[in-house]
Amino acid sequence: MVARIGVVVFPGSNCEHDVLLALGSLGARAELVWHTSQSLAGLDAVILPGGFAHGDYLRPGAIARFSPVMAGVGAMARSGKPVVGICNGFQILTEAGLLPGALQKNRGMRFICKTVQLEVSSTLSVLTKGLKRGQRLQIPINHFEGNYTCDARTLCELEEEDRVILRYVDNPNGAMGDIAGICNRAGNVVGLMPHPERSMDELSGSKDGAFLMGSLLSCIDQLELG
Q1: What residue spans define the domains of the chain?
Q2: CATH 3.30.1130.10, domain 4-225, yes or no
Q3: What is the pLDDT of residues 165-212, one digit of tens each?
C-alpha cells in the first residue's frame, strides 16, 4: 500500500515542495494540506516543513501553533501516527507542546546555511529506526533560530529516555548537548533542524536524507501491517 503523507502549508512555508519531491522520489503519495484544514483523516503521517510560518512574528511557530490544522496534528501524534517537524516545523512542534524545549537564536546571532555532519544517537524514532547508532550523515541546515534549549530536567529526561536522535558532530549554532533532533517517548513525533528533503540525490551533494525519509516510510508500512 502506498503511504499517504500530508505536508502542512502555513502562510510563509517555503520547503513544502521540496518535501513533496523527496517523498515522491521514494514512492510515497504526498499532498499539500492548507493550515486551515480541520481534518487529517486518511493520512498515514504528516510533515510540518521548513519556512517562516506567519512570518515568524512574535517568535517562530508561536502563531502557527494556533492554526486549525494543529488540532489534527495533535490527534495524529496521540494516535501513534508519525508526525515530523523539519526546521520551522520543529519550532512549531515545540510551541504546540508536542515536543519539549525551544529553539532560540543561533550562537553569534547569525543565519546559517551550510551542510553539516550529523551523528545518529538514537534509533527510537520513526526517522532513525532504519539507521545505525553512530552512523554519520551529511545534511544541510538553513536557520537563524536553530539553537535548541531546554531546562536541566528536560535534558536529563531526553538523555535517559534515548530521545535525542541526531547530534551535530561540530555544533554550528550552540544547541544544548549538540542536539539537532529529538522525539517524543513513543518515537512517532520527531523534530529536527536539518533538512533531509534537500539531500536526496548526488546533485545536492549528499543522498543521506534518503536514509531518514526511507526510515519514515518503512515505519509507516509496519504500522499498516500491524
Answers
A1: 4-225
A2: no
A3: 999 999 999 999 999 999 999 999 999 999 999 999 888 889 999 999
